[in-house]
Amino acid sequence: MDIHELEKKLTIQKKSVWSKRDIDSIEGYTSKYKKFIDYSKTERLAVKYSIKLLEDNGFKPLSYYEGIGKIDLGDKIYFVNREKSLFAIKYNHSMKNGINLVGAHIDSPRFDFKPEPLIEDENIAMAKTHYYGGVKKYHWFNIPLELHGVVVKSDGTKVEVSIGDDENDPIFVISDLLPHLDKELPNKKVSEAFDPEKMNLILGTISITYENDKKVNNPVKLNVLKILFEKYGIIEEDLVSAELEVVPALKARDVGLDRSLMASYGHDDRVCAYTALTGLIDSSSSLKNPAVLLVDKEEIGSDGNTGAKNHFWINVIRKIMHLAKEEKVCSIIDDVISNSALLSADVSAAVDPNYKEAHDLSNAPRLGYGITLMKYTGSGGKSRTNDANAELLAKVRNLFNKEDISWQVGELGKVDRGGGGTIALFFAEKGLDVLDAGVPLLGMHSPYEIASKADIYETYLAYKTFFEKFGK
């Protein structure tokens, strides 16, 4: 055998997506993704966009089917959990065959308003914040920021707040100390240099107009409250029952002279949410029921009733089986789960040539080479990870090879240097076969992450292929 033939036969052959996919197809798909990622600055907004996308493609809420009292083969169903997580499924077969599920999270690192956020100091009104998820705090100083979320008044009225996204809106800033006055900074540890209690959002500097020269305490703060009341009808106490999220006021933009990359806030992990949703929508016939699960709270441990630990989707499956008149719903639900597989759709850390020392280069993903398969995540000797079975990995790579899907493997940095977690282990605990698989990024958890358009498109094709053909 020729030496080159032997090399091709025995070694891993990684395929660049750009070398085999039509550029117009990549551009067409990722231009639609830009609309999703620009709108979906919070988990609530991501769910809202997802509902519109699903309904435009024939999906109906579970409540609709409960109203008519039945579900038939071919029906497309979705269920929303507290406006911050979502489950969607195509009911193509009896549930006993299992489900091909792709699960992603739709929360991203950010800064949240504290319960009583408004303060005034030196005639500047500010909002106190608490960072959410793993951030490098210095990334967030003196960049344009937006405010999105909901305020629920004491009577239950829900008010949606969105400031900074429209070009006519003001933006917000967390101010930094100029280098001329920060001479001690180089002598501090990064963990000590940036005090999170000083990361306050600037809201205004104009004092409220006095009547009859009567002065009040904190007149700038009061003017801010007056503006909020006039615009939204809310008072300071209403902010106690609010979810207000501070995110970058940055649109998705092409990166590089060849426009091969895309920068955006929230690629982690909304890029996997969008590719999963569109893969589900565009999937055709399947052996098992294809489904997508979008969850909240992954960046802080997946706790809470909208996080992956809640498993609200299992109850949805029960209701679907009941409406479809499947026999012995209660007795076979465990079989449904054990016959199912999940791709834990989360991003990975691509090799940055400026920081190659952070990676084991033989086990690190590269931009432009397709979806990353991660057998395990975790840290400190694989702690808190799923560690996928070899049998599952063999099935997935065999499928992707047959369907000419570009894939690569990855770890999250060198042993004992890197590490992190996904939602994978919470589903493995329920008995599903689970594998982490998603888009590689540069600058993960920064306000402006970078992804390859080719990897975004290839991940969409990978999920679509998984929905249609895994298990055959």
What keywords describe this structure?
472 residues; alpha/beta; Aminopeptidase; Aminopeptidase i, Domain 2; 2 domains; six-stranded antiparallel β-sheet; 12 helices; globular; metal-binding; M18 family aminopeptidase; hydrolase
What does this structure look like?
The chain has 472 residues and is α/β, with parallel strands linked by helices. The protein folds into 2 domains: 3-108 and 265-469, Aminopeptidase (3-Layer(aba) Sandwich), CATH 3.40.630.10; 110-248, Aminopeptidase i, Domain 2, CATH 2.30.250. 29% of the residues lie in helices and 23% in strands. The protein has helices spanning 3-10, 23-39, 43-55, 62-68, 190-193, 219-232, 267-282, 312-323, 329-338, 390-402, 424-428, 453-469; strands at 60-61, 75-81, 85-91, 99-105, 110-121, 124-132, 145-152, 158-163, 201-204, 242-248, 253-255, 261-264, 289-295, 341-344, 348-349, 371-374, 407-409, 433-438, 440-442, 449-452. The two termini are 33 Å apart.
Poorly predicted parts: none
Class of secondary structure makeup: alpha/beta
Tell how many strands the DSSP assignment holds: 20
CATH H-level superfamily of the largest domain? Zn peptidases
> Taking all residues together, what is the mean pLDDT?
95
- First and last CA, distance: 33 Å
Strand order, main sheet: write it out: 1-2-3-13-4-14-18-16-17
Rounded to the nearest angstrom, the radius of gyration is 24 Å
Please indicate the percent range of residues in DSSP E strands (runs of 2 or more): 15-25%
CATH architecture of the largest domain: 3-Layer(aba) Sandwich
Q: Which fold does the CATH topology of the largest domain refer to?
A: Aminopeptidase
Total of helices = 12
| Helix content estimate | 25-40%
The shape, in one word, is globular
How many structural units, i.e. domains? 2
Largest sheet report: 9 strands, mixed
CATH class value of the largest domain: Alpha Beta
